[in-house]
């Protein structure tokens, strides 16, 4: 009798242990299933967020969305100065412009400006972009983020030309620049600043802003050295807020360019981005 009772107790104990193990295994499987579900949910959520970040409200990916142009902050006055048109725009600015590009030093000047994180307008002549090598230089400058302006095809004195010749000088260059960089110039500068009523009319028809300058010196013999041109460009009495600085693709100007920029900045002037200037 006692032997049977002992066997019965051992059997019951075995059953209880077995049930406990089944329960533990079941709980572990349930916990595993829940953890797997949480991980799956997190992955699905991540995939969903990724899909949202890669598409805008119209279902376009960033590659399909063109970058919106910056809203204009400045405009060019008749005297070529740059003035704010937005209340929060900095008034203490100057504009850098480089004429007769890309002759010899334009790409070097663009690299200097890029290293200094400032911008400028490169006004080009057609006779400097006749060859494929010259055109490649111009495209490189444009691709670096610099604006390309029109300085006529052959750099003539416009008042000496017929209206037909003036138009050819301006429009032919716009056509060539567009072929090279994919867009037409938005600023026009006449050689020697000598505009005519007709050249202004052509610029208007071409949706370009006529732009002369506030001061420049690098064509004068007294300033054809790095030290001389750097000093006068920064310390001239003509330097004021909104000044439009004229420089050229010249060896001495290229050598002085970094000193000119840092000198202007040391005086509290910001180098304005031409992309922020209102055009047509």
Distance between the termini: 112 Å
Please state the CA-atom Rg, rounded to the nearest Å. 35 Å
Total strands: the figure is 9
Mean pLDDT: 84
Query: What would you give as the CATH superfamily of the largest domain?
Result: Glycoside hydrolase/deacetylase
Percent helix, as a range, is 40-55%
Topology as a string of helices (H) and strands (E): HEEEHEHEHEHEHEHE
How many structural domains does the protein architecture include? 2
Do you know the CATH architecture of the largest domain? Alpha-Beta Barrel
| CA-based shape | globular
Low-confidence stretches: 1-15, 17-66
CATH level 3 topology of the largest domain? TIM Barrel
CATH class label of the largest domain: Alpha Beta
Give the percentage of residues in beta strands.
5-15%
Largest sheet: number of strands, sense, barrel closure: 5 strands, parallel
The assigned structural class equals: alpha/beta
Report the total helices.
7
Summarize the SSE layout with pairings.
Elements: H1 2-53, E1 74-76, E2 82-84, E3 93-101, H2 106-115, E4 121-124, H3 132-143, E5 147-150, H4 163-181, E6 187-188, H5 197-205, E7 209-210, H6 226-235, E8 244-248, H7 251-266, E9 270-271
Parallel strand pairs: 3-4, 3-8, 3-9, 4-5, 6-7
Antiparallel strand pairs: 1-2
Helix pairs in contact: 2-3, 2-7, 4-5, 6-7
């Amino acid at each position: 009798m006692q032997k049977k009772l002992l066997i019965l107790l051992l059997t019951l104990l075995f059953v209880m242990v077995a049930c406990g193990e089944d329960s533990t295994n079941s709980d572990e499987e349930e916990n595993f299933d829940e953890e797997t579900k949480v991980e799956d949910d997190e992955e699905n959520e991540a995939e969903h967020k990724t899909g949202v970040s890669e598409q805008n409200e119209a279902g376009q990916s960033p590659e399909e969305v063109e970058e919106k142009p910056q809203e204009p902050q400045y405009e060019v006055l008749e005297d070529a100065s740059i003035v704010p048109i937005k209340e929060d725009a900095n008034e203490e600015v100057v504009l850098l412009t480089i004429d007769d590009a890309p002759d010899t030093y334009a790409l070097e000047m663009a690299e200097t400006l890029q290293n200094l994180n400032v911008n400028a307008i490169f006004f080009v002549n057609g006779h400097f972009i006749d060859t494929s090598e010259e055109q490649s230089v111009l495209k490189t400058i444009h691709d670096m983020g610099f604006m390309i302006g029109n300085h006529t095809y052959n750099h003539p004195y416009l008042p000496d030309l017929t209206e037909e010749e003036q138009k050819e000088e301006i429009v032919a260059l716009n056509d060539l620049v567009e072929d090279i960089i994919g867009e037409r110039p938005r600023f026009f500068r006449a050689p020697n600043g000598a505009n005519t009523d007709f050249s202004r009319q052509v610029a208007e028809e071409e949706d370009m802003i006529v732009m002369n300058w506030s001061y420049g010196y690098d064509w004068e013999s007294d300033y054809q050295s790095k030290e001389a041109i750097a000093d006068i460009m920064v310390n001239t009495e003509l330097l004021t807020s909104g000044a439009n600085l004229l420089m050229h693709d010249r060896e001495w100007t290229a050598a002085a360019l970094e000193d000119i920029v840092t000198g202007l900045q040391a005086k509290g002037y910001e180098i304005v981005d031409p992309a922020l200037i209102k055009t047509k």
